[in-house]
């Protein structure tokens, strides 16, 4: 059979391609965004106990109630917005599933979805699958600032949804209170749904607060907010996340969710419900990763790469225009083959033609790995 593809332009993801190339050439892999260290032994202990206690059958479709209650308490404590555990929270198979399900629930044929670029690669294919059209708004300059006039101009009568990502992958930038207020003002008199990808909400640096959509009532009233236990607790392979939204939006989300995955890992939910109740397990995450960011930046201080310190996430962009004028995809491949170091070229995160000579490096690694990577970067 030769089926007609619904995603004819989509091939293997850059993460798989780069990962295979890194393995083939025995390169240090700072490309895909996951830690090379284990979660807290306490969390692993709780998960093990949960399996042994028999939580091995289907969980409730919305998620285990005790975990939804813990999420509600956490969100209200951090951002001052109360989400009802019984009707406004769903536990998901990672944030990617939450994002996909949100798009599936609301985007129809010919709807437009504004996507801030560079953008994580799962947004646009989901929009395309459900007949929508992604409208890119590109962050400007080497500091990747939002042009709010350009954003406002991108809105049309067909705009169904806006997708934002804060802290932002791949650039490592964070939005200010002023950014959030401007977004709120622009969307106030519209029926546009806001999908807010906040998987790095606890990884913000230099004493700055995370500006969650949940802090802004007019935004929260139209938003589905997606978060990640995997990113927060060094367990990306568990594929555990959640989303919060007002009841009318969550009802539509759950209509799709129940036929998508129905429910997610029961034992892990029970363990996470206990673990999340203690704020110390996430409030210090920013300082933990800031130390790693600083080790990485200090280690390449004498290199030919240019950098603006990441404001959040566990990614750092390096600009290489003083080294070569090669396209970022070409330089990234050469970096693996010749220098044994893997990164992600930023142009792959853009629908528009984009090559500003940036590579993205993940610093969620042990210091010995970061030191080896720094030695390579300094040698170029």
Automatic annotation (TrEMBL):
Record InterPro entries: Aminotransferase_I/II_large (IPR004839), Kynurenine-oxoglutarate_AT (IPR051326), PyrdxlP-dep_Trfase (IPR015424), PyrdxlP-dep_Trfase_major (IPR015421), PyrdxlP-dep_Trfase_small (IPR015422)
Key words, A-Z: Aminotransferase, Pyridoxal phosphate, Transferase
Origin, by domain of life?
A: Bacteria
SUPFAM superfamilies, from UniProt?
PLP-dependent transferases (SSF53383)
Residues of the Aminotransferase class I/classII large domain: 27-376
One GO cellular component assignment for this chain's record is:
cytoplasm
Which CDD domains does its entry note? Answer: AAT_like (cd00609)
The keyword Mitochondrion belongs to this UniProt entry's keyword annotation: no
Any one Gene Ontology MF annotation carried by this entry is:
kynurenine-oxoglutarate transaminase activity
> So which cofactors does this thing need?
pyridoxal 5'-phosphate
The similarity comment for this entry is: Belongs to the class-I pyridoxal-phosphate-dependent aminotransferase family.
The protein in question is named: Aminotransferase class I/II-fold pyridoxal phosphate-dependent enzyme
Which organism does this record belong to?
A: Flagellimonas alvinocaridis
């Amino acid at each position: 059979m030769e089926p007609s593809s619904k995603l004819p332009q989509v091939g293997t993801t850059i993460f798989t391609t780069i990962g295979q190339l890194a393995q083939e050439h025995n390169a240090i892999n700072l490309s895909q965004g996951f830690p090379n260290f284990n979660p807290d032994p306490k969390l692993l202990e709780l998960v093990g106990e949960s399996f042994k206690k028999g939580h091995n059958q289907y969980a409730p479709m919305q998620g285990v109630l005790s975990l939804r209650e813990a999420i509600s308490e956490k969100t209200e404590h951090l951002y001052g917005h109360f989400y009802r555990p019984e009707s406004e929270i769903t536990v998901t198979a990672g944030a990617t599933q939450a994002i996909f399900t949100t798009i599936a629930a609301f985007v129809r044929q010919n709807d437009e979805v504004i996507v801030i670029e560079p953008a994580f690669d799962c947004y646009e294919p989901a929009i395309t699958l459900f007949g929508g059209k992604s409208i890119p708004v590109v962050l400007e300059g080497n500091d990747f600032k939002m042009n709010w006039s350009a954003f406002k101009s991108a809105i049309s009568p067909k705009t169904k949804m806006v997708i934002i990502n804060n802290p932002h992958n791949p650039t490592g930038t964070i939005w200010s209170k002023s950014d959030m207020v401007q977004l709120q003002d622009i969307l106030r008199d519209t029926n546009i749904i806001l999908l807010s990808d906040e998987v790095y909400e606890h990884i913000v640096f230099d004493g700055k607060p995370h500006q969650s959509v949940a802090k802004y009532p007019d935004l929260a009233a139209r938003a589905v907010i997606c978060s990640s236990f995997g990113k927060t607790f060094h367990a990306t392979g568990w594929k555990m996340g959640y989303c919060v939204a007002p009841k009318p939006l969550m009802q539509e989300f759950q209509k799709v969710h129940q036929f998508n995955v129905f429910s997610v890992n029961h034992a892990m939910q029970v363990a996470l419900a206990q673990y999340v109740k203690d704020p110390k397990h996430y409030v210090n995450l920013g300082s933990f990763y800031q130390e790693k960011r600083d080790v990485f930046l200090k280690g390449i201080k004498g290199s030919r790469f240019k950098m603006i310190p990441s404001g959040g996430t566990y990614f750092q962009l390096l600009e290489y225009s003083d080294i070569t004028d090669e396209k970022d995809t070409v330089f990234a491949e050469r970096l693996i083959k010749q220098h044994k170091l893997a990164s992600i070229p930023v142009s792959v995160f853009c629908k528009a033609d984009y090559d500003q000579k940036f590579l993205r490096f993940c610093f969620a690694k042990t210091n010995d790995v970061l030191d080896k990577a720094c030695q390579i970067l300094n040698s170029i």
